[in-house]
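[job 0412] stage=fold_complex status=start
inputs:
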Amino acid sequence: DVKVTQSSRYLVKRTGEKVFLECVQDMDHENMFWYRQDPGLGLRLIYFSYDVKMKEKGDIPEGYSVSREKKERFSLILESASTNQTSMYLCASSFSWQYGYTFGSGTRLTVV
Amino acid sequence: AQRVTQPEKLLSVFKGAPVELKCNYSYSGSPELFWYVQYSRQRLQLLLRHISRESIKGFTADLNKGETSFHLKKPFAQEEDSAMYYCALRSRWPSGSRLTFGEGTQLTVNP
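[job 0412] stage=fold_complex status=done
writing structure:
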């Protein structure tokens, strides 16, 4: 019963490419989040959204943007991919913070 | 600003031994803390929340506001506890809430 789906498990992109990472949730959650996960650094918040067409910058938004046109879909965009954006990207959604986040399986992005 | 620190990147114990994963936080408001776990090849998932004072899979965690800590403990570690553990702090944003995660601790339970 997959509830948060990230469209790609692995991606390899070239430096300078525009990259789209897609995330879809089927739980009617209002809150959605994008994190990147790096060894020794943990999870760092890139962007989050509390409603359709609404977005907030997290701790490391530089080089990224997001789009939320529909409640169930939250896209992360790398405007011009760079090698330092090679990472595991995790999408999450939540109904309310008390109930925790539901995470996707992650997209491992390699920029060459 | 909110911050979560997990001082041990790696922790190795033997099966049946007690285990404690450390978590320290800094936050100006009233803290709400969580532990998340990621088993090999699985998704990150919620393990426990301090507000519910629950024990999950034998793990407990007590919020110590004086020491600003939320250490995760289990009296007898099992091999299936081997995983990456993240401590997380909820912080309030003008438009809602967000979680700040620590660096993570990789726990290995040896047979």
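[job 0412] summary: The first strand of chain B starts at residue 3 and ends at 5.
[job 0412] exit 0
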